[in-house]
Amino acid sequence: MPIYYYKPKFFSQSTKPVDVYDDDDNAVFKIARYHKSNWDKFRVYDQEHFSVYDSSNNEIAYSEQKTRFSRPKWEVRFGQSLDDSLTFTNMSTFTKHNYEFDYEGKSFELRKTLGSTINYLYVDGSEFASVTYGSKLLSFNNPTVYIEIEDESHIPTEALICIVQTYNGVGK
């Protein structure tokens, strides 16, 4: 069961890449926020766009916010030549933060209960991964994010990491 972890930048608008490590402490991916234009840097509300790079600094996945209002949506692209895509949609309610997407005929859901430090990812109703955050209590640092994947066959790892970082960027 692979585990990946990373520590997000303290300043959420930073475009500097963050290393993602595997359970052997090898840097296997990098995550970076990017701005579509210079105007994105100055917007009052956050435009959430992220890229995932492999260890050779080749872009292997990215997310781009498509709609901002009512039910925000992001397009996530990944795979060979970034040909595969999915739409990641906010389906949150007052007490739960739920995001949904479909990939290869399967329904996925990223779910978190209010006040919890653990998110769960489900495919067709059964859990296949979890995302845990280090403690935020009395800390000026962002918590370390741990992604534990029970079954990697459902979705490529780089796409999953991109989805998790996009979810983190819009506010847990």
UniProtKB/TrEMBL annotation:
Domain Tubby C-terminal: 4-165
Stored InterPro entries: Tubby_C-like
Domain of life: Bacteria
Name under which the protein is recorded: Tubby C-terminal domain-containing protein
Source lineage: Bacteria, Bacillati, Bacillota, Bacilli, Bacillales
Organism, as annotated: Evansella tamaricis
Pfam families: Tubby_C_like (PF23728)
